[in-house]
Amino acid sequence: xxxxxxxxxxxxxxxxxxxxxxxxxxxxxxxxxxxxxxxxxxxxxxxxxxxxxxxxxxxxxxxxxxxxxxxxxxxxxxxxxxxxxxxxxxxxxxxxxxxxxxxxxxxxxxxxxxxxxxxxxxxxxxxxxxxxxxxxxxxxxxxxxxxxxxxxxxxxxxxxxxxxxxxxxxxxxxxxxxxxxxxxxxxxxxxxxxxxxxxxxxxxxxxxxxxxxxxxxxxxxxxxxxxxxxxxxxxxxxxxxxxxxxxxxxxxxxxxxxxxxxxxxxxxxxxxxxxxxxxxxxxxxxxxxxxxxxxxxxxxxxxxxxxxxxxxxxxxxxxxxxxxxxxxxxxxxxxxxxxxxxxxxxxxxxxxxxxxxxxxxxxxxxxxxxxxxxxxxxxxxxxxxxxxxxxxxxxxxxxxxxxxxxxxxxxxxxxxxxxxxxxxxxxxxxxxxxxxxxxxxxxxxxxxxxxxxxxxxxxxxxxxxxxxxxxxxxxxxxxxxxxxxxxxxxxxxxxxxxxxxxxxxxxxxxxxxxxxxxxxxxxxxxxxxxxxxxxxxxxx
Length: 540
Fold this sequence. Notes:
Distance between the termini: 76 Å
Shape: globular
Strand order of the largest sheet: 17-26-25-24-20-23
Helix content: 25-40%
Structural class: alpha+beta
CATH superfamily of the largest domain: Chloramphenicol acetyltransferase-like domain
Strand content: 25-35%
Largest sheet: 6 strands, mixed
Oligomer: single chain
Number of strands: 26
């Protein structure tokens, strides 16, 4: 019986390994204890010996290639043995002894062979953003037994960037729910099963695989079966309880941002459920009618947010579950901070002429331009002159972008999102202003589309409106630089040998030293200073 050898975990922190050298080739005789290969881990290059005897029948990872732990490394067996079955279905088995490995393979075979009945569609957790690895079901809009039409919204799914509605591309009856509200699951996990009413779907979710990846475990499915009936009962009770408002998370967020009392909004969804369109189209004409009930509702909804009373000398703490967005932000910032060698350059910019120019522009009817808009425009023009700053690092090459897409950091409840202004250098100040306002508003309401947060080549982060005079930011990879913008402050400055009152602003450029040298970053800042101190030069 052929034995599958997987990429071993040779250190506690190892997640993948690189085959530095193969010491055996396909067809060689292997004895127990022979060194198969040298494997480079995150800490050292180590010899990997065989625990089996036989002939090396297959090499799964070539020299110089990397692969995750538990990936197929090699197959050892009898000379001439047929291993086509192992290559087709055993590419990522677990590291175990041969005796334990054999029955596992035998168990998997009948599971994979389970046929899906005609008309039954397995719906998996979709990849709703480029960085999404798992999603959380915020709300189910359908329950088991409901009729589903093509285009119906099945659920609201929280990704690492936003909460998005997920519509069905199939028609039928909702037969099975694989992920409950509030639960998270990796992309391609079984989300639901849709098919003809009354179809037996027992065992489909447990045995379903997509692209060779294992489906969710049987225990999850059993838990789902047990909780299906109580769940539907609870949902009915929720809609009938007096005083309880049934609304989607997205609708609640929009209402919170707009200051709308949900008790006054009439829901158009199922069972009177309030959806985002109801909140967006709501007019406050009925607000003055019931001031007492309004006050009461606000009090009850804000009460949980009040900090609990803690007697002096006693310790108190609270655990808040990290959202998908927060976890992704943490992971990506850690990767950026600890993989990209950051350095920082700070300059002070005289903003007197910029303030005069802004006042002149804003005197035009229906025109509103902020200082941040002017900074974004100046950055876009400076990047055209210094494309090296508008780059990204790859192991094989440095990518220099000649198009300018500037991301603008926006603070939201769960952290930070970066909507992107495509082709910023081709936009006017007023276009930048309206675009930033629109994107920032929809970012706070979690209404941004994934495409609107992709493709940035440079990032601007502004904390000046909070009174912060100077700070540094972590680079938003794959960008090579990010600009931190502080507040404009009034202070004494020296001009022409005289001390006068001036308005200055500090900006700090964080650079990836792999792509942007100190001189390059300095030249970029000098050009940026020229544009900001003399806004008329941006028209040249």
